[in-house]
Amino acid sequence: MNLPKTLPLAAISVASSLLLTGCFSSGAPSASEGKRIRVAMMQPPRSALSPLSDDAFKLSRWSTAETLVTLDKDGDAQPALATKWRRTGDKTWNFTIRQGVEFHDGSALTAQAVVRSLNAATRAAPKPRILDGVDMKVKASGGSTVAVTTAEADPLVPQRLSSPQLSILAAKAYRGKTVSPVGAGTGAFVLKKVNGTTSATLDRNADYWGGKAKAAGIDVTFVPDGAARAAALRSGDADIVEAVPVSQAALLDEGQISEVPMPRTNTLYLNTEHGPFADPALRAAARRAIDAKALVKGVYENRADVARGLLGPALPWAAKERDGRTKTAKAGDPGGRSITIGTFTDRAELPEVATVLQQQLRDAGFKVKLEVREYANIESDALKGKFDAFILSRATVLDSGDPAAYLHSDFAGDGSFNISQLNDETVDGAVRKAEATAAGDARRAAILKAETAILNTDAAIPMLHERVIQGDATDVVGSAKDPRERELVTNETYVK
Prior knowledge:
D-Maltodextrin-Binding Protein, domain 2; Dipeptide-binding Protein, domain 1; Dipeptide-binding Protein, domain 3; 3 domains; four-stranded antiparallel β-sheet; globular
């Protein structure tokens, strides 16, 4: 359902009600049971909620599937299904598995269960992003210990194992080539039913090891249209709304929205392999043409931050310590060269960003064509380098809490998400050094050097850093405001 911004508020509310009615449970449990929480989410499942895909982050946000490790606000590893870990050599880490935990089907969490889930991830095709370029072997080492060995020394193994794509599930989840999380997690809520790309139902796990959830369950509906999601909150059809578009935030009461700086950067990726932007001078011309302040003010209504680099204010150490650009290519004359910019509709602001950039680049002397589709229908063409430029809203620490994996995936010559088709020895070397450096100040310094090397190529032009805009009804208590988009409803979340 596509609802234009110009629809009257009442019309949007009615449309939203029609969209959401019947998707949420209308049951009224007793006060002692707690109410169910109705959640409107932006993106429907793309891979039937397989934890080996990006759908894993939905399972994490619903507190149904869990990992060995979680991350604190600084990105440091903390215990979850593993209670402790230690490095026993350059390439091996031992994890002690939490005792007394049961999967939702009643089977026990054991070292062998952990091995099964992690090995399924290592054998997946394609592999989860967090394992991009990582050769990892997992085996049980005693009844409650799991040994994780990598082909190369990897200082970030604990952080990698925090990725929702490495969730630990019961044996029933693994059938042939498919992985189904229904009734197979360990978290505070049991995934009971998935209705394709429409809705999902979760019930409280009364035996949750981390403490009984305060809510009776979660009723999820998938609402790609941002105006409809916001209208659901206004009309009372949803309790929590994910990713409120900037254009809708002003229509909500201030007490209903929360803004948190995200590790997410709105970036223009330039095709360095072929086409006009294979010329560094034209990449520099594009960079000089872009007025990010105009985007923040005009498209994001000042609910975003102008980018100074790829890594934004959600990583305070990056903003504080960045060295900046060390060399700058001389800008060339576009001379009327034609370029095609691609982007997608799933994030409401991106088509508007594309329109503004089109005009800015035209003013600089380019001829600009836009191609805008749904993300599922455009991603493969972007990865194959079929566009001269591509606008992407990209999470920079989504998987490990550490941006080195993002820098590798997006900018290394062998990166799996290298939309810019970049193949630069200096960048590759800087990224490899950052990946090999132990966690801490030295690693952060190496990451910033890699960022500088990437910025020097003008393969990617960071424009702005987004903020999470989450909508909560006024009677919602304890929903997570997570910049990494891993948490949303926890066992402490409830509706009054």
